[in-house]
Amino acid sequence: MNRSLLASFGVVAVLLTGCDNGNQASTTTTTTDTVVVKIVPAALPDSAAFRDTTGAQATALYILKNGHAQAAVTNYGARLVSLIVPDKTGNPTDVVVGYDNINNYLHQPDTYFGAIVGRYGNRIAKGHFKLNGKQYTLATNDGPNTLHGGKKGFDAGIWTGKQLSDKSLQLFYLSTDGEEGYPGNLQVKVTYTLTDSNTLRVDYEATTDKATVLNITNHSYFNLNGQGSGTINDHVLQLNADAYTPVDSTLIPTGKIEPVAGTPFDFRQPTAIGARINDNNQQLKFGHGYDHNFVLNKSKDSLGLAAIVQGDKSGIVLTVRTDQPGVQFYGGNFMKGTNPIKAGKKDDYRSAFCLETQHYPDSPNEPSFPSTELKPGETFRSSTTFTFATK
Length: 391
Ligand code: BGC
Fold this sequence. Notes:
By secondary structure, the protein is mainly beta.
C-alpha cells in the first residue's frame, strides 16, 4: 500500500514528525505552500542481500506470509529479521529491529537481534555449573559470566532451513558435545509459524545424548511504533508476574524470588515502561534500567499469558504467551545507536525491548529455581506465541 499525503500547511517539520513512524523511509517535495510527503511502506529486505556462500554453509532469507502480515527469517542464528504487521490505520509497520543484509549480521558486534539464543539463554555465573556431580566450565563472554551460550552461541550458528509452507519454516541446529563447554550433542529444531490471526508462533524441540542444561529463547527486539522510531519508554507494558528474580551487579540472580509489589518492577497493571525507570532503585541501577527475569504467574492454559505491550503511537498491541516459567524483560539499555539497522535507521538507546520467554538465568547454579536439565531419552518441547492486534 503506497500512501501519499498532500497537505498545504507549509510546515515541513510538523508534517514529517507526524507522518514518519520510523520504520519507513519518507521523501519530501516542497512547493511554495504545499508539502507532499510520500511514505514508502515497510518492506521485507531483499533476499539476495542474505545470500552468503563464503562460510562452510550458505545463508539465506526465508519469507512467511499470511495476507496481512509478513515475516523474514535468516538461517544465520535462526534470526527473525523483519515482522511487518498493520498499525491502527492499516499501515504496514516493521516491529522488529534487524539488518537488511547478512554482512551486518556476520560482522557487526553481536546484539542478538532476532536470534534464537542458546544453549543457555541469559547468564551462568562465572561460566561454571555442576551437573550430576560433575563440574563444567564454559566460555565466558560477559565480564566474569557466560551470556547467551558463550562466545559462539546458537545465534552465530548457521542452521539448516526447511520451508514447510508459505506460513511455516523449520530450522535445525546441531550443537556438538563440548561446544562452548556444554556436555552432549544437542539436536535442536525451531519452527516459526505465522498464523492467519497475526500470531508468530515459535516451537522449540531438543534432544541430547548426554545430560545437559538448556535454556533456549528468541531474542527479538521490538518497537511497536516501528523499528528505529525512537524510545520505547512510552509503550505501555503489562507483565503477568507477581515476582521477579533480583540480581547482583553482574546481573546474576541472587537466588531470591521477590514480590514486585511496591517496586518499579510492578507491571501487573498496564504502565508506561519509562514511568519509574529513573527511580532511585538498586535493581534498576544494576540493570542500567530493566534487564530482569520476571517469574510468570502460573496459568491453567498450556500457553499462559506473559505480557501485553501497546505501542503508544501505532496502537499495535503485542500479546506474548508461553509455557516457560519466566520472561526476561530487557529495555534496550545497552543499545548505543552505532549499528545501522533497516531503513537507514540506527539502533538508538532504549529504542526497542525484548521479552525473552525462558527459564530463570543461572538456574544450573540455583537448586531452588526450576530445573533446566535435559537427559538423554527425553525430548524438550516448548512454545511461545507473539500475537499482534491494534487498539
Ligand atoms: C540480557 C542483556 C543483554 C542483552 C543483549 C539480554 O537478554 O539480559 O543484559 O545486554 O540480552 O545481549
